[in-house]
Amino acid sequence: MSGSLGLRIRCSSAAVSPESDGALPGAKGVIQIPTPFSKVKPLPHISICVYALTWAILSYLFCDNMSQEWRWQFVGFESLSGDRPVQLWFDTLPDDDRYEILDLLNMLSNVTSKQWTRPEFDRLEGAGGISEIRVPELRSASGSVTYRIYGYFGPVSRQYCFLYGTDKKVRNDEKGKRIAKNRLDELQDGAARVHEFAFLRGAVVEIRDRTKSKDDVR
Question: Is 140 in a helix, a strand, or coil?
Fold first, then answer.
């Protein structure tokens, strides 16, 4: 056994692509990693053990980390007085509608921001940093409804913050965008904060017990 000794690690997972945030440059399925023993004539028994140990360590550090799912965390706007308007709005929606929104959010949560595109998402260029999650029109026996959730990427990496939720009734929802932008300004000025969003109705007790109408607090 002689010649150059190196490691070729094959990663079967495609959960993280080279284009996604945090991807390893050149990681397209096979990673060529030289070892300290390259171009050294190995000893028959010791070299095999070192090779196996090195491969196991590098496989854990590179392949296992690359196979982890991308995951966004969703948070909501919270005033300094403790009001959580988007959470309250979401909790008051019909069960079927909430499940449809959850399906969309689950899909978005597992891909990078580059894959957040229309028709499910609109970056709202020129809107001052806010963007829009676009829930497809939902139809039922009582009619149809179109939901929009305005938000922004932040305040930390891999977080998306809900600023305002509404059942859209006009083509250009200037009021909703204005409310969302004002709340973003509050967050950036330190006049508000965020909370972890609860997707099960009643999971946040103080929200369920409030008596304000959703039109007053959205």
Answer: strand
Instruction: Give the Cα-Cα-Cα angle 39, 45, 46 (nearest 5 degrees).
Output: 65
Please state the φ and ψ torsions of residue 33, each to the nearest 5 degrees: -125, 115
Tokens standing for residue 9: 């690690």
pTM of the model: 0.62
Query: In 3-state terms, what secondary structure has residue 145?
Result: strand
Residue with tokens 């921001």: 113
In the chain, where the domains are located: 6-66, 73-217
In 3D, which of 136, 90, 98, 134 has the Cα closest to residue 116?
Answer: 134
For the stretch 179-204, pLDDT in tens is 999 999 999 999 999 999 999 854 43
206 SS3 class: helix
Contacts of 29 (CB under 8 A, 6+ apart): 10, 11
**What number of other Cβ atoms are within 10 A of residue 65's Cβ?**
13
What residues have CB less than 8 Å from 52, skipping those under 6 apart? none
Per-residue pLDDT tens digits for 136-179: 999 888 889 999 999 999 999 999 999 999 998 888 999 999 99
Rounded Cα gap, residues 111 and 108, in angstroms:
6
46, 51, 52, 56 alpha-carbon torsion, rounded to 10°: 140
Chain segment 26-64, per-residue pLDDT in tens: 444 444 545 554 555 555 556 666 666 776 665 545 444
Contact indicator for 180, 186 with CB cutoff of 8 Å = no
Q: Which amino acid is at 3?
A: G
